[in-house]
From TrEMBL:
GO biological process: negative regulation of DNA-templated transcription; regulation of secondary metabolite biosynthetic process
Superkingdom, natural source: Bacteria
Cofactor note: Binds 1 zinc ion per subunit.
GO cellular component terms attached to this protein's record: cytoplasm
Localization, UniProt: Cytoplasm
Lineage: Bacteria, Bacillati, Actinomycetota, Actinomycetes, Micromonosporales
Entry protein name: Fur family transcriptional regulator, ferric uptake regulator
Organism expressing this protein natively: Micromonospora auratinigra
Cofactor (UniProt): Zn(2+)
Length: 151
């Protein structure tokens, strides 16, 4: 079941270790989670893995390009295994929920900057901010429950 993950590690010349496999599997099943959540997920599989090991694994996998680290303003860093397609994210201002958004037009057009100032651009990060459906529903419910408003 983990053989595809082992292949991924070998492809970037990383030694196959249980913590690395566990982190990759956790992120494949739970995209956009923060470090604490990764630690909890990994420990559910391998209880002996230390926090430091998970930090080290996250850094090694990010450096190797197997996972992508995203850090929206004011939010904690999140990780995901969907790499290389320069997709974007929509973030809820209220609860921090994150979802993937494909490039708005065609194939990674955001990489073509109007003026690249001579830089070689390899990544463009677009973050859409808003309110997720759940928080929008909560807010409507709150407004109905307390007409005076609680804020
Ligand atoms: Zn929300
Ligand atoms: Zn994503």
């Amino acid at each position: 079941m983990t053989s595809d993950l082992e292949t991924q590690l070998r492809a970037v010349s990383l030694r196959v270790t249980r913590p690395r496999l566990a982190v990759l599997a956790a992120l494949r099943d739970h995209p956009h989670v923060d470090t604490d959540t990764v630690i909890a997920l990994v420990r559910a599989e391998c209880p002996t893995v230390s926090h430091q090991t998970v930090y080290d694994v996250l850094r090694a996998l990010t450096d190797a390009g197997l996972i992508r680290r995203i850090q929206p303003a004011r939010a904690t860093a999140r990780y995901e295994t969907r790499v290389g397609d320069n997709h974007h994210h929509v973030v809820c201002r209220s609860c921090g929920a994150i979802a993937d958004v494909d490039c708005a037009v065609g194939d990674a057009p955001c990489l073509t900057a109007a003026d690249d100032h001579g830089f070689v651009v390899d990544e463009a990060e677009v973050v859409y901010w808003g309110t997720c459906p759940e928080c929008a529903t909560d807010r409507t419910a709150q407004r109905t429950a307390s007409p005076e408003g609680t804020r």
